[in-house]
Amino acid sequence: MFTRTKKLDSTCHKQPRPTVLLSVANNIMPLSWHMPVSKSPLRYAICLRDENKSYDLLHINEQFALNFLDFSYLEAFEKSGSEHGGDKFKLTNLTPKKAQTINATLIEEAYMIYECKVIDILNYGDHDVFISEITLIHSKDVKDVKPTLFTGEGYYETTSLNPQRVLRVEDV
Ligand SMILES: Cc1cc2nc3c(=O)[nH]c(=O)nc-3n(C[C@H](O)[C@H](O)[C@H](O)COP(=O)(O)O)c2cc1C
Fold it and tell me: Closest Cα partner for 130 from 117, 143, 141, 144?
């Protein structure tokens, strides 16, 4: 039996979303609404609400980075998501890293980073959708990454990318 609603409310199942720390200029904030929109050319979309400082900064700078951090950095996600602006590197104890193709401060502790340049901005409601070109991907050679998944209302989850634990359909 289904219950029916037109809102993302408590009757809906959670959708664990891979969550990143978004860098715009020198500011960082957690972001769970993001997705690839084209493989070739490589295009990526992020959704930002206008109450966030990063929203204003991104409209001005039109460049950003997505820093993928391991599940062990949950505190940094929570701290950087509870304030608007300020020195978030000091707040989280994360290490600033220089970008190569954009003007934004990256995060040294990330296991992967996308550098992106905005090519279009759409709006269908309470978030702007920034469509971007991925200009560079940094990847660290780390084994068994534990990605950070956000399930909403302050809850997080992780999964395993260990090839011994990831199943193909013929293994089931
Ligand atoms: C796990 C998590 C995911 C979030 N995802 C988004 C998102 O996708 N888009 C958005 O606009 N805000 C999102 N937020 C809210 C912002 O991160 C939060 O308002 C932050 O304080 C904004 O920082 P700023 O004002 O310095 O840019 C999220 C918050 C958390 C904790």
Answer: 117
In angstroms, rounded to a whole number, what is the distance separating the alpha carbons of residues 79 and 85? 11
Give residue-wise pLDDT tens across range 83-99.
999 999 999 999 999 99
pLDDT of residue 143: 84
pTM (predicted TM-score): 0.96
Look up residue 109 and give its amino acid. Answer: E
Mutate-to-test residue for ligand 1 from 21, 22, 31, highest number of ligand atoms within 8 A of CB: 31
Q: Ligand 1: distance of its center to the CA of 163 in Å?
A: 31
The answer regarding whether domain 17-171 maps to CATH 2.30.110.10 reads yes
**112-165 pLDDT, tens digit each:** 999 999 999 999 999 999 999 999 999 999 988 999 999 999 999 999 877 677
- Between CA 140 and CA 107 the distance in angstroms is 12
Distance CA 167, CA 165 (A): 6
Residue spans per domain, the chain: 17-171
Spell 28-45 as b/e; 16+ CB within 10 A means b: bbbbbebeeeeeeeebbb
What is the structure's pLDDT at 108?
A: 98
